[in-house]
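Hey all, quick one. A colleague (J.T.) asked me to put the pyridoxal-5'-phosphate job into the tracker so the inputs and the structure tokens live in one place instead of scattered across chat threads. No bug as far as I know, just bookkeeping. Sequence used:
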Amino acid sequence: MGIPFIDLKSQYKRIENEVRGGIEAVLEHGAYIMGPEIRELESELAGYSKVNHAVGCASGTDALVMALMALDVKPGDAVFTTPFTFMATAEAVALLGATPVFVDIDPVTYNIDPAALKKAIRKVHDEGKLRPKGVIAVDLFGVPADYDAIEPIAKNNGLFLIVDAAQSFGAVYKGRPVCSIGDIACTSFFPAKPLGCYGDGGMVFTDDETLDGLLRSVRVHGQGTDKYDNVRLGINGRLDSMQAAVLKAKFAIFPEEVELRNEVADRYREVLAGVENLVTPTVPEGCTSVWAQYSVLARDAEHRAELQAKLQEAGIPSAIYYPLPLHLQQAFAYLGYSKGDLPVCEGIGERIFALPMHPYLKAEDQQAIAEALAG
Ligand SMILES: Cc1ncc(COP(=O)(O)O)c(C=O)c1O
């Protein structure tokens, strides 16, 4: 057996009875959509995230679309975000007819650079073509963005703040769970995420009662008093009861798994210290990560190819997040960005690659990974 990139099987073996019991309960009561598991999960995860409201939904992508719809994002609006993220972050903005404005990243955390954000807002303001409307910060790989800097920038410019916590549910920024930050926070329960289900799923978090009402309405086709009273446009964005049952079983061991992920990350830092020209990740002071990915930096693109080849030879999987930043993707060609526009992000994109990361990664496997890289 080789080293898996993510080990969902070991996790399943630990909680098999609880998962099966949860799914069987859904089969018995038959409320496959919006069954009691949804509210129970929403309440558990809201409590864990120290936030008033949580709204389960069908994916992390739908979480972002619902958040943007609840915040009334429209054509002509500019929403500032990072180009170094998964497609969904900016896609959600564009699907609503608004314009994603890409802002370069911090070279250490790979998250949106607050100084560049300030400049980008000023530029859009001065050009006068788009209305600056909001910011979507992404906690890439599970590391929180720089909220002490981002929050006042958003506030002073009258912009909303959405936290894309698809990769960071469970992470903490200076004592604050990341899903309690911003006007709305969104997460994903895609199976490979730190808290994942056995299909697609997501959740939206807010402290604001009005936004909670809007999110619940948008989740079911803009429903008013019932689903055949449609007071606004919405989507079919519901989380199903079976996925909620799976998540409830997984959530019971999630805090322990976050600790295990941090132990794995600590061990990586130790064993990789001897690999020349390899930069291991940094978690800013006062923050914790949930290590959705353990991404390291090679010296340059050639060095990365060499290191990935060494891993492959040893039967160890690795992956690149993300091979092409969003501002250079064909889908966003209409925005008119060119290579060289966001140099920090483009440079990191040529050097970064991710190593196997999951709570059950053994010390000897990590040693073998370090030896393959150093060999
Ligand atoms: C940063 C980020 N945002 C949004 C998403 C979208 O989540 P989903 O795949 O559940 O739609 C992902 C998932 O990969 C993500 O990593």
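Adding what we noticed when we looked at it: The pocket of pyridoxal-5'-phosphate is lined by residues 59-61, 85-86, 88-89, 138, 164, 166-167, 188, 190, 200, 202 (CB under 6 Å). The first strand starts at residue 53 and ends at 57.
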